[in-house]
Design the sequence.
């Protein structure tokens, strides 16, 4: 699904490279967490995958083709939700489908393989996702009038309504309270299975990395030259949060990140 | 996979839910309408106070230049069926044309300045310099360059509105968070879709705010511009046709017409601002 070969990336012409000859591969259906201290380049990596930044050198291929602009089959969810404050929850969720209808299936802004959704179909899709994410009652409210958790649910619904094959998330739950965060983490786990999504989630929370990713990529201080990977095959199994394996995995990550267990 | 489950959905259910969505949009409109009704009641009260002041002033002055409302009203009604209507329409046409031009030109430029930092760095000092200059002082220059026709008057008013709109649209576009732009781009939006779905709806309330605060100035300047080289318009009617001929009751009919022009424009802009700016009152985001 994702193949990164000899990636080099630096900010500016003479800065310290964030990535240097970096290699990383993700197979379809895998769920990954990326963890690291701030400034390690985890968000940069996600922006590169999203096509919102360009690599300085090397190749990033997603689904077999090199990436130079946002790929229509990739979904992106950010910490700050990226909702339009002037549009209702409904209109925010419908945005992606509207953008697709605006361009038609040109392969650049919308996948060529997906036939254009008619207005009626789009309405059904929006409604289904609003219901699936439990925000149907909020559909006519503006983002300013709903809770943080509901805002992030809106952003998730908007992204998933486009049926992405790859879901990228940048610290999606960092600004939410603990209960809402756990609730949404469980939702993401369900959706990963339901939609057989390949997903990459960037986080700075060790527990979150261990809960959401069956594979964990650990990034260190730049330059990152080698992908440090922790396998975490039990993630997503019911009750994983309270198992011994989970705690051990968290401690392993702490050690890798240079923290004392 | 999801699409197929969808097709299987009973159509009746979908239809029901769709009308439900439409019904709640109607509710929202009804709310706005109710707000408007309350405002109309307040307006009636204000009008009563205004008339009382007028009557008191007329009684205190007791001169021809200050007639009573009941002397002015029949003249207004009568004049509105004749000449005054033509003059009102001429003035309204000029203001509306100026609004249209300034919005169409200032909005895209404002968006560009707000989003492209390098451009803004170059042009902001210039705008800061020119914006506070009262544009009406350029009336003689504009008259000479653009001629005595409609164009010079429309241009002068448009110039005033232009800077007001430019500044607020620029600030609004600059305040759009990069995260918002990024996530909309990740949904597939290129420049055209960003313009249609992000910049345009984001700056619409700002444009209306700018119009609301500047439409009064625009009409005041129109009044002055209509003193020169024209035989149409309320400014001409009030000064040349009535005041200079000591037809004070007709003059007040003209003043009333000009006030109504300002009031109606203000109310329309204010109403639109309420409809399109509803989200601003929805809370912090």
Sequence:
């Amino acid at each position: 699904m994702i193949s990164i070969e000899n990636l080099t990336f630096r900010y500016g012409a003479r800065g310290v490279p964030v990535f240097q000859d970096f290699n990383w591969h993700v197979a379809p259906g895998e769920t990954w967490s990326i963890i690291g201290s701030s400034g390690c380049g985890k968000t940069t990596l996600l922006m590169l995958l999203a096509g919102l930044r360009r690599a300085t050198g090397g190749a990033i291929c997603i689904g077999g083709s090199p990436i130079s602009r946002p790929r229509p089959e990739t979904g992106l969810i950010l910490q700050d939700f990226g909702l339009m404050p002037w549009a209702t929850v409904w209109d925010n969720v419908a945005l992606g489908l509207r953008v697709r209808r605006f361009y038609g299936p040109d392969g650049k802004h919308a996948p060529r393989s997906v036939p254009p959704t008619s207005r009626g179909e789009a309405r059904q899709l929006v409604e289904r996702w609003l219901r699936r994410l439990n925000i149907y009652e909020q559909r006519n409210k503006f983002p300013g009038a709903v809770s943080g958790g509901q805002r992030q649910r809106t952003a998730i619904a908007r992204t998933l309504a486009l049926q992405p094959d790859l879901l990228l998330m940048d610290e999606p739950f960092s600004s939410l309270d603990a209960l809402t965060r756990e609730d949404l983490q469980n939702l993401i786990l369900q959706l990963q299975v339901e939609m057989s999504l390949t997903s990459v989630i960037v986080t700075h929370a060790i527990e979150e990395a261990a809960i959401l990713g069956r594979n964990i990529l650990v990034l260190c201080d730049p330059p990152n030259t080698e992908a440090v990977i922790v396998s975490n095959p039990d993630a997503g199994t019911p009750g994983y949060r309270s198992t011994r394996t989970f705690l051990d995995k968290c401690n392993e990550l702490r050690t890798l990140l240079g923290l004392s267990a | 996979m999801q699409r197929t489950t969808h097709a299987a959905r009973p159509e009746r259910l979908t239809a029901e839910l769709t009308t439900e969505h439409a019904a709640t949009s109607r509710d929202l409109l009804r709310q706005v309408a109710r707000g408007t009704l309350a405002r109309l009641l307040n307006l009636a009260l204000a009008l009563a106070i205004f008339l009382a002041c007028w009557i008191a002033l007329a009684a205190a002055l007791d001169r021809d230049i200050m007639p009573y409302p009941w002397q002015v009203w029949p003249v207004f009604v009568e004049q509105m069926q004749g000449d005054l209507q033509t003059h009102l329409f001429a003035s309204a046409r000029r203001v509306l044309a100026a609004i249209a031009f300034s919005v169409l030109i200032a909005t895209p430029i404002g968006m560009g300045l707000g989003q492209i930092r390098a451009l803004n760095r170059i042009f902001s000092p210039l705008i800061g310099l020119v914006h506070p200059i009262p544009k009406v002082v350029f009336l003689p220059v504009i008259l000479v360059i653009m001629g005595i026709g409609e164009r010079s008057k429309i241009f002068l008013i448009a110039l005033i509105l232009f800077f007001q709109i430019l500044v607020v649209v620029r600030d609004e576009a600059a305040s759009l968070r990069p995260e918002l732009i990024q996530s909309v781009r990740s949904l597939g939006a290129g420049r055209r879709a960003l313009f249609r779905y992000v910049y345009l709806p984001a700056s619409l309330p700002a444009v209306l705010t700018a119009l609301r605060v500047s439409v009064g100035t625009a009409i005041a300047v129109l009044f002055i511009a209509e003193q020169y080289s024209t035989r149409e318009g309320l400014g001409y009617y009030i000064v040349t046709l009535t005041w200079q001929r000591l037809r004070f009751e007709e003059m007040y009919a003209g003043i009333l017409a000009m006030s109504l022009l300002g009031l109606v424009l203000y109310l329309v802009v204010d109403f639109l601002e309420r409809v399109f700016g509803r989200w601003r009152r929805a809370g912090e985001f």
